[in-house]
């Protein structure tokens, strides 16, 4: 008589260990079959359980049993809402075969792989909630001592219950678990699934960052509907930019940014821990609908400066900029509204020796330029000495004209020289103490905020702050302000329609040219606005 489940040690209706009645087959894995069963004991009924079975006869080597026992031992110590509770582990004799059995609570819902096979499409909010919960459970596993590595995170091992307001996630099948593996350690067995395995796992190695890679690949499948193994590659990395349009990248926001970083082939280029990845994800997707936004970081600084942004827009922009880095304790007042962010990769090679920083997010929606003060340096001292000499000579000439009996009109010829001296003095002081920050957002933030702000600390403590719509920006250019001894004194100018904003006084020409090219390169794709 044919059995409904060939090569299965159990059949529908079978009673296992006199405690569990088999009611269905949940799945087949490399390390056994998983059944749905109904407990018969009063303490466990009526909640169904997942019963995972490993047949001794079906084992190809002793490693299978070792991994199965390791899974049971690890699950016995775990306690997290997203990990179905361990119930029992035992072995039974079935028709001349010894079958090892692991029993857990059955996770509600269906495997993400099943949802995807059925053509299910998920909203951005559902993807964000799933990603958050997956990182939370990985953070819990990594926090244990020693840490627990799942090593086979993939859609078939992520169970989703989508009946509620947001998906409820469970992580199952710890058959590849390895507790206590040190970073860079090579194992004796390669564990994982093609398309979700981090490159370092192919050599039997890996650490917590390997699970993060797999988590990102799982979420990528969730919002593209394409298995990661089918995606094109560029420089040994999944080329997700070629399959996800820019509009969709903007819609996904920080989900896209975090996934892209976690899919870096080199582990050191990913986030160091699930907590770091989770913080980066929540930086954009956390809700700040209530409360006083004047206490919410960058949003509070913008509002303190008298920004015209609505409170919710300022908060959205604040959260988007947290994706670039982590706030530092820079102190000071409102001038430092956008400073203190740990930068991301600089897009172009910057001039050697410059202190200026240029930061962009990977979706090319946010740009931040910081021009810090130089402080006292040999160059500044030389420039200051020249300024003093210039001003002294101008004063001597002016006094000589006024006291020498020459017509008063001759003294007017000194006005351009006085103006040049004042400009050089201001430039020198700004080079010593000035601080300039430019931020441009093209749709950055959950609310698609189009914004630019330029904050400058000038000489004698004066502060300037201008802002507007980023879509009104035209270009950056270098203008010659004046000539001193035949040498041009240049400045970087940001053009907004008929208005012009000066930044970068005191910078060398090579720095100004670099910043001009960076700004124009960033603005170029946006000219369609």
Automatic annotation (TrEMBL):
Its EC number is 2.7.11.1. GO terms for molecular function: ATP binding; protein serine/threonine kinase activity. Keywords: ATP-binding, Kinase, Membrane, Nucleotide-binding, Serine/threonine-protein kinase, Transferase, Transmembrane, Transmembrane helix. ATP binds at residue 52. The chain crosses the membrane at residues 395-419. SMART domains: S_TKc. Pfam families: Pkinase (PF00069). It is an enzyme of class 2 (transferase). It catalyses: L-seryl-[protein] + ATP = O-phospho-L-seryl-[protein] + ADP + H(+); L-threonyl-[protein] + ATP = O-phospho-L-threonyl-[protein] + ADP + H(+). InterPro entries: Kinase-like_dom_sf (IPR011009), Prot_kinase_dom (IPR000719), Protein_kinase_ATP_BS (IPR017441), Ser/Thr_kinase_AS (IPR008271). Residues 20-282 form the Protein kinase domain. It comes from the Eukaryota. SUPFAM superfamilies: Protein kinase-like (PK-like). This is non-specific serine/threonine protein kinase. It comes from Chondrus crispus (Carrageen Irish moss). The lineage of its organism: Eukaryota, Rhodophyta, Florideophyceae, Rhodymeniophycidae, Gigartinales.
């Amino acid at each position: 008589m044919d059995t409904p489940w060939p090569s299965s040690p159990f059949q529908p209706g079978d009673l296992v260990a006199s405690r569990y009645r088999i009611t269905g087959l949940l799945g087949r894995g490399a390390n056994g079959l998983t059944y749905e069963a109904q407990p018969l004991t009063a303490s466990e009924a009526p909640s169904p359980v997942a019963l995972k079975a490993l047949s001794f006869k079906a084992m190809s080597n002793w490693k299978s049993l070792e991994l199965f026992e390791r899974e049971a031992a690890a699950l016995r110590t775990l306690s997290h809402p997203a990990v179905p509770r361990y119930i029992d582990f035992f072995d039974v004799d079935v028709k001349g075969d010894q079958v090892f059995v692991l029993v857990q609570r059955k996770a509600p819902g269906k495997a993400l792989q099943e949802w995807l096979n059925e053509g299910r499409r998920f909203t951005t909010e559902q993807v964000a909630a799933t990603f958050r919960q997956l990182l939370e459970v990985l953070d819990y596993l990594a926090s244990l001592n020693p840490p627990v590595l799942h090593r086979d995170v993939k859609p078939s091992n992520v169970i989703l219950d989508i009946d509620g307001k947001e998906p409820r996630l469970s992580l199952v099948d710890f058959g590849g678990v390895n507790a206590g593996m040190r970073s860079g350690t090579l194992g004796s067995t390669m564990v994982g699934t093609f398309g979700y395995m981090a490159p370092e796992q192919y050599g039997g190695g890996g650490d917590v960052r390997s699970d993060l890679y797999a988590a990102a690949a799982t979420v990528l499948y969730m919002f593209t509907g394409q298995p990661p193994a089918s995606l094109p590659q560029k420089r040994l990395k999944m080329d997700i930019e070629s399959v996800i349009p820019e509009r969709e990248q903007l819609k996904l926001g920080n989900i896209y940014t975090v996934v892209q970083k976690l899919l870096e082939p080199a582990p050191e280029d990913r986030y160091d821990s699930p907590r770091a990845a989770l913080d980066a994800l929540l930086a954009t997707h956390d809700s700040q609908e209530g409360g006083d936004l004047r206490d919410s970081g960058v949003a509070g600084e913008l509002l303190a400066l008298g920004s015209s942004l609505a409170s919710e827009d300022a908060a959205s922009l604040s959260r988007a900029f947290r994706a670039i880095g982590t706030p530092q304790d820079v102190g000071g007042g409102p001038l430092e509204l956008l400073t203190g962010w740990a930068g991301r990769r600089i897009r172009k090679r910057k001039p050697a020796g410059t202190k200026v920083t240029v930061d962009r997010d990977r979706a090319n929606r946010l740009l931040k330029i910081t021009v810090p003060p130089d402080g006292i340096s040999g160059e500044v001292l030389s420039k200051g000495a020249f300024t003093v000499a210039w001003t002294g000579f101008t004063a001597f000439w002016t006094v000589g004209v006024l006291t020498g009996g020459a017509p008063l009109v001759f003294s007017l010829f000194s006005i351009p020289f006085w103006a040049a001296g004042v400009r050089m003095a201001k430039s020198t002081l700004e080079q010593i103490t000035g601080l300039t920050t430019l931020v441009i957002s093209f749709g950055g933030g959950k609310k698609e905020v189009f914004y630019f702000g330029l904050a400058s600390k000038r000489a004698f403590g004066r502060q300037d702050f201008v802002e507007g719509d980023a879509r009104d920006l035209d270009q950056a250019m270098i203008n010659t302000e004046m000539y001193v001894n035949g040498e041009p004194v240049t400045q970087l100018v940001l053009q907004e329609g008929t208005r012009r904003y000066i930044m970068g006084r005191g910078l060398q020409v090579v720095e100004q040219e670099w910043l001009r090219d960076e700004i124009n390169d960033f603005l170029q794709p946006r000219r369609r606005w």
